[in-house]
Amino acid sequence: DAGITQSPRHKVTETGTPVTLRCHQTENHRYMYWYRQDPGHGLRLIHYSYGVKDTDKGEVSDGYSVSRSKTEDFLLTLESATSSQTSVYFCASQEGLGTYNYGYTFGSGTRLTVV
Amino acid sequence: DQQVKQNSPSLSVQEGRISILNCDYTNSMFDYFLWYKKYPAEGPTFLISISSIKDKNEDGRFTVFLNKSAKHLSLHIVPSQPGDSAVYFCAAKGVNDMRFGAGTRLTVKP
Asked: In chain A, whose CA is at the least distance from the CA of B101?
């Protein structure tokens, strides 16, 4: 009954290849987010979505694209993977901006290694 | 441009004592502040939040204090338990997103 599932959980890929990470939520949340976690930086926002087909850039969006064709699915694509994109990627969702505590629901993360 | 800073990468406390985790922010437009807890190989989980119009919010053993004039918030855990050992992230809500600090690893020793 996990609210958010991310796939794959681990991936090793070669420099220059495209990679797609998947996020699936069963909460019917409107808002979805992709973050990356790196030592010393915490969680940094890559892209977010405020509805089907509605997406926008976060603070570290270069080299990434996203798509949201259904409420429950939010895809993150690394167009041409580089070693600097080695990271742990987290997907999150939120019911709405009026949610009283504004807490996000996070997935368990995808550990991506670019070699 | 780190708008949310947690200057202590780690903190170690004895079981039963108080844990105090600190966070500073630079953007006065943040209107909501949150703390998340993260165990290894799991995603962060929401712990407690506070609106910018308040200076304290309490939930069981967890209390968050906000000092707007100093742009500082803190999380107090009393009493600390070994199960509280985790990485704690401070976060601040802006207009369209949430900014996170780098995290503080709390270790509670039995």
From this structure: A42
